[in-house]
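Entry 12.
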Amino acid sequence: MKQIAVAALLEHESGLELQAVSGQSGLGRMVKSIDVNRPGLALAGFYKNFAFDRIQVFGRGEFAYIEECGGSKQKEIATTFFDFSMPGLVMTHGNQPPECFVRMSESSSIPILTTKQSTHNFIMQFHHFMVEELAPATSVHGVLVEVFGVGILLVGHSGIGKSETALELVERGHRLVADDAVNVRCVAGTDLYGQASELLQYHMEIRGLGIINVKDLFGVGAIRGRKRIELIAELEDWNPDKEYERLGLEDEMTEILGVSVPRITIPVRPGRNVPVLVETAAMNHRSKKMGYHAARVLSDRLREQMEKKKYTSGTQS
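Predicted 3D structure (tokens):
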């Protein structure tokens, strides 16, 4: 089961805005759940089914309650509350924990974090962050590009021309996401998102030219940090003995991290404009998503014509 350390929440740059107030020795505690717990009932003394294994979030209601208790009652709440092995506690709206909570946090090595965000915004940001971090992940050899808004993963053996095809697509106004190694995450069990590693981001390897930086050469409009993978285009050497798809009535699928993705095979040989074929595949994929499947429409028309001819010939006889 995937899990992350509480310290990773502090390092998150895009929205949590957390600061450690106490219990820093416990920043190595692991967070396993994408959900948080609002411990209102627990603070009131009802600990049955207490979800202590989650990050505990103190909003304005929880904070107001412990402030109102004060004195010995507040210490009693803190002592009982920190008896549970929680990954950590977050106080929203910039609220600071009472001194007895700080002492119990230090003695139990359970970190208390604060954020200026509202409770609602923090929970949304936390959930989004955890879904991303705990999502199943893998690395795929290929090139990910965005063509007419469609995320297309180009795959095929080394030297088939994936990077050159992607370079031509970038020159035609499309965008590069990742070259050579595509880091893929499965989000919510249904969507695959690909991106480059920090080391290789914006770079491409072109045989004969070496390493180029697409962002520097073509501008920021030529790159994208992350994109959903909607179509896989496999490039392979033309094999005259192989029967390639001519109609496209049935969609072929490839499975990555348990998610099925439509796949097309593009045979490569001199004279074939592969970038144009990829562009056409992207537009055709968009058309299918909008409910228009050209091959099936044509097939239905041919079937109707054949039935009409059969009916006409039967009538005449």
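Annotation: The mean pLDDT is 89. The two ends are 72 Å apart (CA to CA).
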